[in-house]
Amino acid sequence: MDRLRAVLDYAKANLRVDTSRIYFTGLSMGGGATWAFARSQRYNPNEFYAAELAAIVPICGADQVSAIACNMANHSLPIWAFHGTADGTVSIERSREFVNAINGISAAGVQCSPANPVKALLTEYAGVGHDSWTKTYNPATRFNPATAVEDNSGINIYQWMLMHSR
Prior knowledge:
The chain is α/β, with parallel strands linked by helices.
């Protein structure tokens, strides 16, 4: 997490960054890093990275679900995860466990209480393998944010991210 922290700190110090609109997204190992970063804390045990993020979009990422996942729920972090049901590289259960735990449903021995007031979303692509990112990152792909399913009358993931700020 130190390297991600360093990149973020560099960007904030040297670029014109709107600190109320910092989004993390990643695919595969980067999706796992997105989960890991958002649940992690700074050197001060009372400061969590989730408090700095406007939203996260982990895609087919794996990370260990533990009670510290509740840091995301405690900071009302908007989350929309994407995963293919036929992913043979990273089990879809990793995304299901995070989303369920954050939403206050017991998963892998973790249940955040209180649950995230901003319901974490999971879009499952039926029959899709590890490449869940091509469809997700395509601006023409639209989703209904209430149901997390594809819907041509909905919004794309970039529009969803821009709906959130800190």
